[in-house]
Amino acid sequence: MKFAAAFFSMCVFMSACSNDESQEQSIPDNGEASEQIEETVVEAVEESVVSPLTGLETDEQNITQRPVSVMINNHPAARPQSGLTKADIVYEVLAEGNITRFLAVFQSDIPDIIGPVRSARPYYIDLSKGYDSLYIAHGYSPDALVKLTNGEVDSLNGMEYDGTLFWRADHRKAPHNSYISKENILEGAISKQYEVAAEVEPFEFLSEEEVQNLEGDHVNKFVIKYDNSQTWQATYEYNQTDKVYSRYSATQQTVDLESNDPVKLSNIFVVEMDHNIVDGYGRRGIDLKSGGKALLLQNGLMQEVEWVNEDGRILPVKDGNIVKFVPGKTWINIVPNLDMFLIQSQE
Length: 347
Hints:
Domain DUF3048: 53-194, 224-332
Largest sheet: 12 strands, mixed
Organism: Metabacillus halosaccharovorans
Shape: globular
Signal peptide: 1-18
Order of helices and strands: HHEEEEEHEHEHEEHHEEEEEEEEEEEEEE
Protein name: DUF3048 domain-containing protein
Structural class: alpha+beta
Helix content: 10-25%
Number of strands: 23
CATH architecture of the largest domain: 3-Layer(bba) Sandwich
Number of helices: 7
Number of domains: 2
Distance between the termini: 40 Å
Strand content: 25-35%
Radius of gyration: 24 Å
Keywords: Signal
CATH superfamily of the largest domain: YerB-like
């Protein structure tokens, strides 16, 4: 349609020139007209821009928006969360015990309400560095505080801005009620003289033809068991019609609190990393660098891959080559052992 409109406009322009300036200009020959049409096609194609982290079409002004990484609570008292549906990338990782937290990376669309926001841990900070993102948390572990104090990332923390940039929602109890907004993130970034624009390194994405030719084992439903209790289990189900994955915590679908929109995903990347307990509170250390076994689920298919850390980003590789993502949103589940991944009945 863009080409048709552009071509129509060009024809009107040529006709006007012919009528008004017939004594001064001649009608272009077929070769010149073809060149003009080709230039119009190129200009129309160039108008289509895609998000660097989703591969989906987006507004041009969004391309240079600096990513924002937010620590989001996944305790049952914090569900459903606000803003997760708009995250381009989400890491689900164990904090203490069998409780997971999310690191949600927003670039193409930063929500008006994000939360509940939770405290920082060192490995979440390290993951955020892979996007040179502005890191948002409310609180910190001792080791995380060292990283933040040393300025390893640009950050805004609710311990400093509770009641100003961060607010407490009255429909939940602390520590499950801290929230922040896009407007307040921008205000905080400007006040601390952080960059709010960036040239974001894009992921590699499959073409439509490559998506259709994907190979792997058919897996439409699977669960990641962070604990034997359903409370701490993440279930994913593939919709063959919509070509997206839905996510569930226990038996409840992961949706947005305000809009009730569900999370819709194109890639689920399950990676096995070494975990260890580092203190008496049960806080963890996680090896984000060594690489290892992983599973990649796309288009209702599963393939066994490896993972690597490339400039801070956890990426799938196979036969030494980066495996491209399907355009869309991606969730990365980090687990101590791939035995926690279980395929459910294929109905």
